[in-house]
């Protein structure tokens, strides 16, 4: 059996802790270093999952024992640690958004391609069972060519923002569109295909964060005429929820959470009504009820890690790539520009 691939973790917050747990549950990976500015946070994870605890993120990112570096710091530090890891010849899994600016995200991608290492963006929503089911229906051709996508992600803000820096554009690069919205920007493109034009509006409907929108509305168009509608919100008073729906020439599929659910239907003749079908995930629902939403995130993280480890062994990139993360940021940036200028813009 080949030796385990060493993993360094930079950032030991709530998401970093789930990343460390995912490394421990992924065959062929072993945690060798944990870094955080708070020594007690790094030590706590190192004691639970192994590895050297340090307050020096650059030391962890360049640790010679590591072949993979996981970056789970605030977004404005992503480029610093990802670029250091890449320069040292490490593969990188970076949390979303890939960086707090498009320019830094592009630097990460270009550096990785020049160095010949892999970068994977942490778009774990692609691994939600309902999203995976929807993508399989699309790939099978059951719905025909996908011509439209509608997507929504929202939470009520406040405590669900998690950290004060989430609504600080100097750290994140924006507001709701680059927070919870970055996932559905990625999924809209994941289902529809590449987009090249954007139009949208952003605003502060309830919160008054300086430079960070609490709602973002956007339309995207593809070169072939497909259209995607995206809405990201921090005013979803009922609590966190997201859904993405793909509409094809012969049917539709909607993936949503919570609860984890897929609804779909297909027609033989355009204009006829599709019989609604549902894909339920009963075992999943029971486990999440017992273990909380963290269990769901952990499961998707393990799948992400497993895919990336397989890609590293095979020497091939694994979606969602760094370029996917860059493109999602470019989509958000295009919406901000469109909102300022009051017109459709090119991507």
General description of the model:
The longest helix is centred in the last third of the chain and has 22 residues, at 293-314. The N and C termini lie far apart (47 Å). The chain has a 9-stranded mixed β-sheet. It has a 6-stranded parallel β-sheet with strand order 3-2-1-4-5-6, sandwiched between helices. It is of the alpha/beta class and 347 residues long. Helix 9 crosses helix 10 (293-314). Strand 5, helix 5 (102-115) and strand 6 form a beta-alpha-beta unit. It has 11 helices and 15 strands. It is globular and about 60 Å long.
Low-confidence stretches: none
Shape: globular
Helical residue percent band:
25-40%
Percentage of residues in DSSP E strands: 15-25%
| Ends distance | 47 Å
Given helix and strand content, the structural type is alpha/beta
The radius of gyration is 20 Å
Overall pLDDT confidence: 97
Number of strands: 15
Physical arrangement of strands within the biggest beta sheet = 14-13-12-11-7-10-9-8-15
Number of helices: 11
One letter per element, helices H and strands E, the order comes to EHEHEHEHEHEHEHHEEEEEEEHHHE
Biggest sheet, in brief?
Answer: 9 strands, mixed
Summarize this structure briefly.
The protein has 347 residues and is α/β, with parallel strands linked by helices.
How is this fold's topology laid out?
Layout: E1 5-10, H1 14-25, E2 29-35, H2 39-49, E3 52-54, H3 57-61, E4 68-71, H4 78-87, E5 91-95, H5 102-115, E6 119-122, H6 129-140, E7 146-154, H7 169-172, H8 181-192, E8 197-203, E9 215-221, E10 227-233, E11 241-248, E12 251-257, E13 261-266, E14 277-280, H9 282-291, H10 293-314, H11 322-341, E15 345-346
Parallel strand pairs: 1-2, 1-4, 2-3, 4-5, 5-6, 7-10
Antiparallel strand pairs: 7-11, 8-9, 8-15, 9-10, 11-12, 12-13, 13-14
Helix pairs in contact: 1-10, 4-5, 5-11, 8-11, 9-10
């Amino acid at each position: 059996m080949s030796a385990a691939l060493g993993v360094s973790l930079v950032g030991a917050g709530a998401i970093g802790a789930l990343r460390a747990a995912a490394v421990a549950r992924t065959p062929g990976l072993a945690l060798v270093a944990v870094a955080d500015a708070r020594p007690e946070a790094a030590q706590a994870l190192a004691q639970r999952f192994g590895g050297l605890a340090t307050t020096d993120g650059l030391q962890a990112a360049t640790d010679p024992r590591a072949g993979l570096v996981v970056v789970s710091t605030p977004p404005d530090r992503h480029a610093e640690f990802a670029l250091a890891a890449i320069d040292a010849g490490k593969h990188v899994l970076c949390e979303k958004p890939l960086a707090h600016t498009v320019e830094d995200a592009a630097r990460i991608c270009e550096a990785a391609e020049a160095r010949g290492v892999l970068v994977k963006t942490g778009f774990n929503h692609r691994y939600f069972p309902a999203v995976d089911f929807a993508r399989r229906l699309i790939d099978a051709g059951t719905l025909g060519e996908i011509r439209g996508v509608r997507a929504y992600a929202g939470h009520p803000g406040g405590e669900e923002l998690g950290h004060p820096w989430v609504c600080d554009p100097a750290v994140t690069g924006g507001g709701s569109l680059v927070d919870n919205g970055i996932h559905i920007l990625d999924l809209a493109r994941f289902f529809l295909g590449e987009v090249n034009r954007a139009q949208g509006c952003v605003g502060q409907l309830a919160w008054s964060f300086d430079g960070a929108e609490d709602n973002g509305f956007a339309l995207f168009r593809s070169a072939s005429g497909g259209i995607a509608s995206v809405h990201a919100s921090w005013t979803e008073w009922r609590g966190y929820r997201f859904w993405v729906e793909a509409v094809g020439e012969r049917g539709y599929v909607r993936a949503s959470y919570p609860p984890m659910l897929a609804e779909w239907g297909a027609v033989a003749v355009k204009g006829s009504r599709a019989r609604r079908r549902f894909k339920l995930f009963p075992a999943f629902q029971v486990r999440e009820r017992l273990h909380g939403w963290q269990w769901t995130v952990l499961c998707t993280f393990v799948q992400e890690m497993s895919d990336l480890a397989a890609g590293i062994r095979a020497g091939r990139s694994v979606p969602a790539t760094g370029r996917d993360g860059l493109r999602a940021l470019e989509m958000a940036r295009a919406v901000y520009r469109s909102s300022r200028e009051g017109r459709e813009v090119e991507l």
